[in-house]
Amino acid sequence: MAYTHEQLGELLLGCGLSGKEAAVYLVACQLGSGSAQEISQRSGVNRTTTYVCLETLEKQGFVSVVTEGKKTMFIPEHPSTLVAKCEELHRTRERQLRELSEALPELAALYNVAGKKPKVLFLDGRDGLLAAHQEFENLRGPYVQITNVDDARRVFEGLTYMRGSHQEKMHTHETTGRALLVTEQSFEHLKLAAIPVDVKLIHYEHMPIHGAA
């Protein structure tokens, strides 16, 4: 199979090289031996970055540095060194995966320790709002809520008995929380539910959201 220059570069990424390091190495292979300036011009990587890439490649054993007169030249090592590097990375990843799998029961035990974890739900329409109310009613700790109260009122239009039932349950359970309520109405004319919640009102023009969170 014949590989394009771009495909070869992508293969080198799997050996732990960055995109620019791969470009620099490929040009070094084409030149056989070249200065940083030559490699920079051919690879399209700026000169400063080319020096950094060549230094990294040298540390990894992918290029060698020789001095010819007053010039510093960079010579690529045989591509078989890349294969050896990939094999080493593969063995390391297999070992890490094996160790992680062995540690999974302990990690799971840490995950399941007592304590409440945040829950995020995405609910839609009247059924979604009813489900959200049920979630709040089942809470036994403080919560934070952001709601467009105009949307909620429209959803519950004609169902005031449901709102009353919800408020009664919130009172019974003494569920406390904080609520940021968004509305297009005048604050003076807004009727709020009598539940144990610390409420802050904000006008829709300052927070143009719909629904609840």
- Output the helix-strand order: HHHHEEHHEHHEE
Strands ordered across the widest β-sheet: 3-4-5
By CATH, the architecture of the largest domain is named Orthogonal Bundle
**Total beta strand runs:** 5
Helix-strand makeup class: alpha/beta
The global form is: elongated
Structure description:
This protein has 213 residues and is of the alpha/beta class. The chain has 2 domains: 1-114, Winged helix-like DNA-binding domain superfamily/Winged helix DNA-binding domain (Arc Repressor Mutant, subunit A, Orthogonal Bundle); 125-203, no CATH class. The protein has 8 helices and 5 strands, in the order H-H-H-H-E-E-H-H-E-H-H-E-E. The chain has helices at 5-13, 19-31, 36-43, 47-59, 80-111, 125-138, 149-155, 160-173, and strands spanning 63-68, 71-76, 143-148, 177-183, 197-203. Strands 3-4-5 form a 3-stranded parallel β-sheet. A hairpin with a 2-residue loop joins strand 1 (63-68) and strand 2 (71-76). The longest helix has 32 residues, at 80-111. The chain is elongated, with a radius of gyration of 32 Å.
Keywords, separated by commas or semicolons:
single chain, 213 residues, alpha/beta, Arc Repressor Mutant, subunit A, 2 domains, three-stranded parallel beta sheet, two-stranded antiparallel sheet, 8 helices, 15% strand, elongated
Question: How would you summarize what this structure contains?
Answer:
By secondary structure, the protein is α/β, with parallel strands linked by helices. Helix content is 52%, strand content 15%.
